[in-house]
Amino acid sequence: MRAAPLLFLCCAIAQSGSHAADRPTPSDVVATVGGEPIYSAELACLVGKALAGKQVDDAALRIAQDQVLSGLVSRRLVLAYARRTQTAPSDARIDAEVAALAKQLAARGSSLDQFLAEQSIDRDGLRRQLTWNVVWPQYLERYVTEDRAKVYFDEHRRTFDGTELSVRHILLRSASSGSEAIEDTLRKAREIRQAILAGKISFEEAVRKHSTGPSAEHGGTLGWIGRRGPMLESFTRAAFALKAGEISEPVQTPFGVHLIRCDEVKPGTRQLDEVRGTVNEALARELLEKLARNERQYTPVEYARQATTAKRP
């Protein structure tokens, strides 16, 4: 059985447990895509993997849930696209994939039923995963071409060539995980940014007055960062969109809301052949977002009221 190409296949959908009492109810649904439910157990599993054991507060957890749920919805939309465009594998093909998996399990002294019980999934969830394993590599093969990789590298050279930025930030934390508290924090961050841009206060003064991060003692300085670390992706993506001297719009991460200033840019020298794998991964994300965005006009997405509000792709 082929390895799953995306993180989303690492956690199975908890649609049935080993006992009837374990089966999810409508209250366990966090979203539906084309009428198909996404359950809270799947979301929780993937959030846990994304946080990798890090302890975060309620506000940070909510942000992580938003980001992961957005990705889950995108993947379901791509599967809907495959069905609508008749590019999804046939039932017979998935039957063969299930049979191959059952054979592998039998060789290990297990069975398909045992596997499903251990993973807390049902056959529909398994077939959905196997469908993704078949269809997504086919889409990638057509989309991730040499010409497209060259163009993407040239258009996003600073992202891949080893460029480093010297940055500092202002970190604001919400009083609670509620949406109103988070919005208040975002509004405060926007006000601080406007005051800095208007010359009413310097960035360093704003750090001393408002920042709650440990770097506040050093003017918010975080030192040099690369595109692949050590900061979180949402932080780094916003930072690398800046020129020297520019200040970002408010950026949410599991740690709070940031205002980022780029102080200096150190250009990189890497070429496409040295970072081809990373460029291909970026193209895969681009394809996922494009297909999901296009499919939204054909496939309805609904979020449960009790669920975290996912950021739309």
Provide the descriptors you would attach to this structure in a database record.
single chain, 313 residues, Chitinase A, domain 3, 2 domains, 4-stranded antiparallel β-sheet, 3-stranded antiparallel β-sheet, 49% helix, globular, disordered N terminus
What does this structure look like?
- This protein has 313 residues and is of the alpha+beta class.
- It has helices at residues 40-51, 58-84, 91-107, 112-119, 123-143, 146-155, 157-160, 179-197, 203-210, 233-239, 276-295, and strands at 29-33, 36-39, 164-172, 221-226, 251-253, 256-266, 301-303.
- A hairpin with a 2-residue loop joins strand 5 (251-253) and strand 6.
- Helix 1 crosses helix 2 (58-84), helix 3 packs across helix 5 and helix 6 crosses helix 11 (276-295).
- The longest helix has 27 residues, at 58-84.
- It is globular, with a radius of gyration of 22 Å.
- The protein starts with 28 loop residues before the first strand and ends in a 10-residue tail after the last strand.
- Mean pLDDT is 86; it is low at 1-10, 12-21 and 308-313.
Briefly characterize the structure:
With 313 residues, the protein is α+β, with helices and mostly antiparallel strands.
